[in-house]
């Protein structure tokens, strides 16, 4: 075999989204794009806010010294200062530029954090359902991904988390608002999690770091606020990107924010700055650093996603589906009527409706539906969802 056996195995185990995407391409060629209803990808569909283009134009026109040259590996000091002010506002804890470094998106940020914190053979604990890349990110740095179940409504299950923690647990990752469930973890559950991690860190004689992956922080509905992780646990780190809140996923710009009272603060930050370089990212894109620094507090039109959520959920509920309505992100986890997510995805595919089996996210029995799609994809799909639903009711 020309490639490493482990990578071959990873390709096979992570293929659900890719398979559905490729199936979508084939079906669109066969039946026409307007007749295929593709909910498989999580690509932001709401355009960037007008302020983004203004900031981009202004930044391009500027001619500061060394505009396209090397910079400090943590990013431009003035950009870090601006991001520190942003995090101080959202987390309710005062940060400075020395608590923050700019990264190549949230994916780059997570790899930097895990390389800095994990020794070979240690464990990274995530909640089910989880973002598919977490397992590969952990493996990149010699760690193993372990999992804890969530409650039926996808909220944190503190008892399950405690049962999953071991003396080898180096990092706990939470993702709220959550991809793929749309759940937003409550302040009460974060407080309970913080207390648990503090107790277990003392019991195991080691620091268990809490990493909060927050690229969807601004994509929430119905007046919900995303609680502060920093307010509930000092050994915590926030990683995020501007991919969703500004709809600039292709620009790969994000940051790491470290709690100012984290254990061995300076060593942690210095380690992450080193890892930012040696992982090959070197530093975040220069132009986009300057652009996002101008856009503190600016977001996409979240009302558009809220409207799409309700359009989808109202239609599915009218058909007869029962599910937890997402409180954030642009994803819905839809239970398979008979508990078989692969068969449910297959039946929907027969109706030219494409969803992703939940087992790709660690949750068999559900399918992920991304409603970051045109309205006509949602409305046009209802006939197919209804036909699939009725085929289960009739037993055919």
Description:
This protein is α/β, with parallel strands linked by helices and 396 residues long. The chain has two domains: 5-48 and 301-394, Alpha-Beta Complex (Aspartate Aminotransferase, domain 1); 50-293, Type I PLP-dependent aspartate aminotransferase-like (Major domain) (Aspartate Aminotransferase, domain 2, 3-Layer(aba) Sandwich). The protein has helices at 5-13, 16-31, 50-61, 77-91, 105-117, 134-140, 158-164, 187-204, 265-278, 286-293, 302-319, 341-350, 375-394; strands spanning 37-38, 100-103, 123-127, 144-148, 169-175, 209-213, 236-241, 254-258, 331-335, 353-354, 356-357, 366-370. The strands form three sheets. It has a seven-stranded mixed β-sheet with strand order 2-8-7-6-5-3-4, sandwiched between helices. Helix 11 packs parallel to helix 13. It is globular and about 65 Å long. The mean pLDDT is 95.
Average pLDDT, rounded to a whole number, is 95
CA(first)-CA(last) distance: 43 Å
Question: What is the strand tally?
Answer: 12
CATH topology of the largest domain: Aspartate Aminotransferase, domain 2
Number of domains: 2
């Amino acid at each position: 075999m020309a490639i490493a056996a482990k990578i071959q195995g990873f390709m096979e185990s992570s293929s659900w989204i890719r398979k559905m995407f490729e199936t979508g391409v084939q079906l669109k060629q066969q039946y026409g794009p307007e007749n295929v209803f593709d909910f498989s990808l999580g690509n932001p569909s709401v355009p960037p806010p007008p302020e983004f283009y203004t900031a981009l134009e202004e930044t391009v026109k500027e001619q500061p010294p060394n505009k396209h040259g090397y910079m400090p590996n943590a990013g431009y000091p003035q950009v870090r200062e601006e991001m520190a002010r942003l995090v101080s506002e959202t987390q309710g804890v005062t940060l400075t530029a020395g608590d923050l470094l700019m990264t190549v998106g949230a994916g780059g940020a997570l790899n930097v954090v895990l390389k800095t914190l994990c020794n070979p053979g240690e464990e990274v604990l995530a909640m089910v359902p989880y973002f598919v890349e977490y397992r590969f990110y952990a493996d990149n740095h010699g760690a193993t991904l372990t999992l804890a179940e969530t409650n039926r409504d996808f909220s944190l299950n503190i008892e399950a988390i405690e049962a999953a923690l071991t003396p080898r647990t180096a990092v706990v990752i939470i993702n709220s608002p959550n991809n793929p469930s749309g759940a937003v973890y409550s302040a009460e559950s974060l407080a309970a999690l913080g207390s648990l991690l503090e107790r277990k860190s003392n019991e195991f004689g080691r620091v268990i770091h809490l990493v909060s992956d927050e690229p969807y922080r601004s994509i929430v509905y119905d007046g919900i606020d995303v609680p502060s992780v920093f307010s509930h646990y000092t050994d915590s780190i926030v990683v995020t990107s501007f991919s969703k809140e500004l709809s600039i996923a292709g620009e790969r710009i994000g940051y790491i924010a470290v709690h100012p009272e984290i254990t061995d603060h300076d060593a942690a930050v210095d380690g992450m700055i080193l890892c930012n370089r040696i992982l090959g990212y070197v530093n975040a894109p220069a132009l986009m650093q300057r652009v996002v620094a101008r856009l503190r507090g600016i977001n996409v039109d979240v009302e558009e996603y809220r409207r799409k959520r309700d359009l989808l959920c109202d239609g599915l509920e009218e058909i007869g589906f029962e599910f937890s309505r997402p409180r954030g992100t642009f994803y819905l986890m839809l239970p398979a009527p008979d508990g078989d997510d692969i068969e449910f995805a297959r039946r929907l595919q027969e109706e030219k409706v494409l969803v992703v089996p939940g087992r790709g996210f660690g949750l068999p029995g559900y399918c992920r539906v991304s409603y970051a799609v045109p309205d006509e994809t949602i409305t046009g799909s209802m006939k197919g969802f209804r036909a699939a639903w009725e085929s289960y009711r009739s037993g055919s």
